[in-house]
Amino acid sequence: xxxxxxxxxxxxxxxxxxxxxxxxxxxxxxxxxxxxxxxxxxxxxxxxxxxxxxxxxxxxxxxxxxxxxxxxxxxxxxxxxxxxxxxxxxxxxxxxxxxxxxxxxxxxxxxxxxxxxxxxxxxxxxxxxxxxxxxxxxxxxxxx
Length: 144
Ligand code: DQA
What we know:
The protein is α/β, with parallel strands linked by helices. It contains five helices and five strands. Residues 10, 73, 75-76, 78, 99-101, 103, 110 line the site of 1,3,4-trihydroxy-5-OXO-cyclohexanecarboxylic acid.
């Protein structure tokens, strides 16, 4: 199973952002962990990150031909980017939405997600481990 893990805007700043919400480790640390979990779960994972909405849309377009499943953390775009929703809509495989922080327990505007109805699962507030849980969900679906 080929999985694209797509991190969006400002996630390259992990380690410098609010440690209370996002922890103190970097994006590189996160991606290293994700690749280790993928190895354990026998999943083929590719991690990508961008701060440019159009490039994130390009990642989603590319995934139509190159990925069987997606783990998405679009960062703040989650809450307002209808372009990202539209780009995701044709993707036929399972999608899991991940947020490091507890988006439902923070500001009201973070509760809104443009991915609603397009995802097989959502993990929020679990820090880096949320990505492991997302990969676990996808590995389980592969076995089902
Ligand atoms: C985030 C939550 C978003 O509200 C925020 O804008 C982010 C990160 C998270 O992982 O908790 O940049 O997606």
